[in-house]
Specification:
Helix content is 57%, strand content 6%. The chain contains 18 helices and 5 strands. The protein is globular and about 65 Å long.
Length: 396
């Protein structure tokens, strides 16, 4: 499903909160002209009084205001209402993206505000909001189906029929939910479409080769495409930056694991539980140097260890904004160099011993650019961590 097809109401109420009247008036005019139903408040106290009597899909608030500041307003709104909150500030030295998102904000906009950027970000927040509404609707329908099954379980024949129907509905709901969530990631990165298909197949191959139960293999197959769903919360200028990331930008990138886990948390469906586990853990490392929790060795769930290797391989052999595709032999040697260091040594052995099947999957899914050692050049990011010095001797 394309994210653009998510059903959003025609009239969307938005509340703007800022103590600077010229800003509220400009935002009111811009949002009203764009078709939103807009209200304004001069401070946090006034905003809460308005919200007590009116529903708003999104609240757009400044941080520095007299009396209640924007962070305190954000916390009060998230405690009492289901509105999404977008925070805006010109004081970036005092507030950063990660701390604001951790407090519950759906987005963080720097002043002076670009109206074009505001409209893009607001639309993205609304799409994500109603995507989650549809996900919850699917879960509600599944719960209702289970109740119906329990009600008629007295009659064996009818019960068997309903079990069969419920199973088909469950499978459809799983796949439909996955398509919706993955579409959110595709909205951020046009390359993600082929990437997630390859990821699913690489991970399924490894799960089968190490002898996991069929049901676990299926869960990993369906859940692994959602590993990077949290990137929907990462600013585009960081996500598609062509050069080396700053330390602050890398810290922001790292939050995609916790953002993804938050999106996927709380579901009763096993496939979404597995997706939550993968989103949170696929950047943990065997030696404990990964993120977000610094887990090591078997502390890292097997699903996260499998997806971590597949993700590294596909990133190495694919074009990214910051690099050209690496030759297969370079990618293999990089993964081999991390065996028992950052990557599970047994899983690396399985991956490399089945590299012919991995390469076949890579050739079947998407357009593959054949990279050769003769034309190969290290990316700025890999040179920064001296990967070229480590791997080059292995290639001779």
């Amino acid at each position: 499903m394309n994210l653009q097809n998510v059903k959003i109401p025609s009239e969307i109420p938005v509340l703007v909160v800022d103590d600077e009247t010229p800003i509220t008036e400009m935002l009111f005019q811009a949002l009203s002209k764009a078709g939103y139903t807009c209200r304004t408040a001069a401070n946090g106290e006034q905003a809460l009084l308005i919200m007590a009597e009116n529903h708003f899909d999104v609240v757009l608030t400044d941080i520095r205001m007299p009396g209640m500041n924007g962070v305190d307003l954000l916390k009060k709104i998230k405690a009492a209402y289901d509105s999404d909150v977008m925070v805006m500030t010109g004081f970036t030295e005092d507030y950063n993206y990660e701390s604001i998102v951790t407090a519950g904000a759906s987005d963080f906009i720097q002043k002076p505000i670009s109206f074009k950027e505001l409209m893009i970000r607001l639309k993205r927040v609304l799409h994500m909001r109603y995507l989650l509404v549809e996900r919850d609707h699917i879960n509600t329908e599944l719960q209702n189906s289970v109740k119906k099954l329990e009600k008629y379980s007295v009659e064996l024949k009818n019960a068997l029929i309903e079990v069969e129907d419920a199973h088909e509905e469950l499978q459809y709901a799983y796949l439909d939910t996955i398509n919706r969530l993955v579409s959110a990631a595709e909205y951020k990165d046009e390359e993600t479409g082929d990437h997630i298909v390859r990821m699913s197949r690489y991970c399924t191959l490894m799960a089968e080769k190490i002898g996991l139960a069929n049901e676990t293999v299926k869960l990993i197959q369906y859940a692994s495409p959602m590993h990077d769903i949290g990137k929907i919360g990462i600013p585009d200028q960081i996500l598609i930056k062509p050069g080396r990331l700053t330390a602050e930008e890398f810290e922001t990138i790292k939050t995609h694991t916790t953002i993804g886990a938050s999106i996927l948390a709380g579901s009763r469906a096993d496939v979404l539980k597995t997706a939550h586990e993968i989103a949170l853990n696929h950047h943990e490392k065997w030696d404990g140097s990964g993120y977000p929790r610094g887990l090591k060795k078997e502390e890292i769930p097997i699903s996260g260890r499998i997806v971590g290797i597949a993700d590294i391989f596909d990133a190495l052999t694919s074009r990214r904004p910051y690099k050209d595709p690496y030759p297969l032999e370079v990618a293999v040697e990089i993964i081999r160099s991390e065996q028992g260091v950052k990557l599970d040594p047994d899983l690396v052995a399985v991956f490399i011993s089945n590299i012919d099947q991995v390469e076949q999957i890579r050739r079947e899914v998407g357009e593959i650019e054949n990279a050769s050692l003769a034309d190969f050049a290290w990316s700025e990011r890999d040179q920064a961590v001296h990967m070229d010095r480590l791997i080059a001797p292995r290639l001779k």
